[in-house]
Structure formats: C-alpha cells, structure tokens
What does this fold into?
Amino acid sequence: MTSLATRPTEAAGGVHLDSSANVVLTGNKILGNEAGQDGGGVSLWWDSNNATLTGNEIHHNTAAWDGGGITFRESHNATLVNNMVVENQITSSSGNGTGIQLVNSDARLLHTTLARNSGAGNNSGVSVVCLWTGGICNPSAITMTNTILVGHAVGLEVREHNTATLEATLWGSGDWANGIDVDDWGGQGTVYTGPAALNYWGLPAFVAPDAGDYHISAGAAINRGVDAGVTSDIDGDPRPAPSGTRPDLGADEFSQRSIYLPLVVRD
It folds into this structure.
C-alpha cells in the first residue's frame, strides 16, 4: 500500500490524472493533500477515461474549489470498488462535493464508504453537476451500489439535467445523519434510490472514527447489500461473510471473529 501525503499543488492534490486513460489505482492511502483548485485527494481530468480505483483510503485532503476527496472532470466510465472517502473538505463558498464531485463525467461506485466530508459551499458529500458550454449542459451520471453515505450536511446533490442511481444505501441517523432534517439527497436532477426496502437509516457503527478507523462493527450496515460481484473487501477479506449471506454496505466487510479460551479443569 502506497501513502501519498502532504503534496500541495495548484491544480490538484495527491494524484492528478490529465488525459490519462485506463489508469488503475489500487491499495493506496491518499491523505493530507491540498489542491489549489479541484480534487484534494484524486482528480481525473479531460478524457481520463476507464479509470479503476480499488481499495483506496482517501481522507483528510482539502480542495480550494471542488471535490475534496475526488473530482472527475470530463472523464468517463470510471469504476470504483471498496474505497473509503472520509473527512475531506473544500474551502470555497461556491464549491461542491466535499467527498466526490462529477463534472461532465460518469462513474460506477461499488461498496463505497463516504463519511464526514465537510467544508464551505453546500456541504454535499457527493455532487453531480453539468459542465456548461455555450449555454448547453454536458451532464454527469453516477451509479452507487452498496454505499455508506453518512455525516454530511447534504448526502447527495444532483443538479438539473444530471442523474444518480443508487441501490442499497445507508444514509445514517443520529450523529451520523446527513443534515438536520431530510437532507440525504437534493437538487433538481434525477435521483433514483432503488426499492424503498434497500434504503436504510441507522448507525454505521464505525470502529473508531475519531482515530481514523472507518471499518464497521455490528451495526446497520451488516448484511444489507446486494450482490454486485465483489468477492473481497478493502482489506482483502472475503465478501460476503459468512458465505451465503448478503454482503455488508461500504468498503469493509465485517467478520465475526471467534475467541477460543483455554479449557480449565478443576478437581
């Protein structure tokens, strides 16, 4: 696992891909970076198509404009599997997507943990917007399956002409709710959240989030997912666990561990 930390740049922070197709980014910790514009942790710009991001921890990055964790700009057909995007932020009052932003881009996210991304602007964890050229919207689309999306002012913002499709989502409750009232998703775009039975509100039961550990313990994310063809989690542990059950939501698969105590025989 590679760690990319504290690398301030003008355009982007930790990893910046420009016109770079078919990139694979696997098993990295991308943290503490600062971007003078977009994409505090990762940015994919201008035809960085067909990217695959798997098993990355993207946290505590900052973008001056948009996409505190990840930004996609005019890049298409990205696939993200088992990624944690947590505690990133943006600083501009007109910024969007404290965790993830898409601009004239499309991406498919499987088993993503998004939590406690924050900052200025509308404070949306995920923002899906147009690139406007000559008064014409070049739209974006995101598909998210088996997602934990908690602890934001607004969980998901989809602006007019754009689309988000979600299946099996934990939106959070209590201290992990998105917003004060009903701010899990908003905007004038099209948001399809799947069957009502696959939207959950509850506590994610992260192990030690204040210490940066966003693995899950026994909570609302357990056995709530759908089969997305993902057979391991961010740590390489089997998914689902135990075999034959439904997978957990988010990047981590909770495994109940057995503890064997010595046998004591008393005369």
In short: DSSP finds no helices and 26 strands in the chain. Residues 2-216 form one domain. Residues 39 and 206 are 25 Å apart (CA to CA).
